[in-house]
Design a protein that fits this description.
This protein is an alpha/beta fold. The protein has 11 helices and 7 strands.
């Protein structure tokens, strides 16, 4: 209901029939206006003159600011129920597609370090000038002990990190590769290849290998994918 229009008619002591006659329209049309339908511009102008009101008085929604369009979101290319369910070819292609930057943020990332094909791909990319940044958990840090306890694996997480560091070691000799240790509570493991990200959300009491994977592509500077990129950078610069 347009109560503003109805009140204006009452103030002017005009009936629906009076307005219909003045504007040369059917009374049903006036009743539709009173029910909420907005008149055509020519009828709005005549009504405003007749009732001595502005269009903003009678139909304020016409001048209400329109909401700004939402920025485009990151493309969700694929989802996987578990990290172990991601085909090896996806990991291989993911890192092989990088042209500028590869980023790995995890506690151990041992499953990648044990894959000689993936390690060879990352090494080849570094030789081609791609920046490679690898962030692994500090095996002596308190966060690793806490995570090991949360997953029910005790000290084995720290052992996995030490094993991974040995396997990642050959990459240290290459230009464009840097490996750092972090002592951060991770809510996600992040595997980046330029604007494509494989995100492994962590769930309490669940090993990362059993948690799901989201494959995102960043398309905007403030989309979901960009949020994870900023998170990676925060950890990197905090080490």
């Amino acid at each position: 209901m347009n109560d503003l229009l109805r009140r204006a008619l009452e103030e002017a002591r005009l009936t629906e029939e009076d307005v219909a006659k003045r504007l040369d329209v059917d009374p049903k049309t006036v009743r539709r206006w009173l029910s909420g339908r907005i008149p055509y511009p020519r009828h709005r102008a005549t009504l405003c003159d007749l009732l001595d009101h502005t269009a903003d008085d009678l139909w304020p929604q016409l001048s209400a600011p329109r909401p700004l369009p939402e920025p485009p979101g990151a493309q969700i290319l694929a989802t996987y129920p578990h990290r172990w369910a991601v085909p090896r070819a996806v990991w291989q292609h993911h890192f092989a597609s990088a042209r500028h930057e590869i980023g790995i943020l995890a506690y151990a990332g041992l499953f990648l370090a044990e894959d000689q094909g993936v390690m060879r791909t990352i090494a080849d990319k570094a030789r081609d000038g791609v920046t490679v940044r690898i962030l692994l958990g500090n095996p002596d840090g308190p966060r690793i002990s806490e995570r090991g306890a949360d997953e029910g694996v005790g000290d084995s997480l720290a052992a996995k990190i030490r094993n991974a560091l040995v396997l990642y070691e050959p990459l240290r000799d290459l230009d464009n590769v840097e490996i750092r240790l972090h002592d951060t509570v991770l809510y996600n493991s992040i595997y980046r290849a330029d604007n494509d990200l494989l995100i492994n959300p962590h769930a309490y009491g669940i090993p990362a290998s059993h948690a799901p994977i989201l494959h995102l592509r960043t398309t905007h500077t403030d989309d979901m994918g960009a949020t994870y990129r900023h998170s990676f950078d925060r950890v990197w610069h905090g080490t």
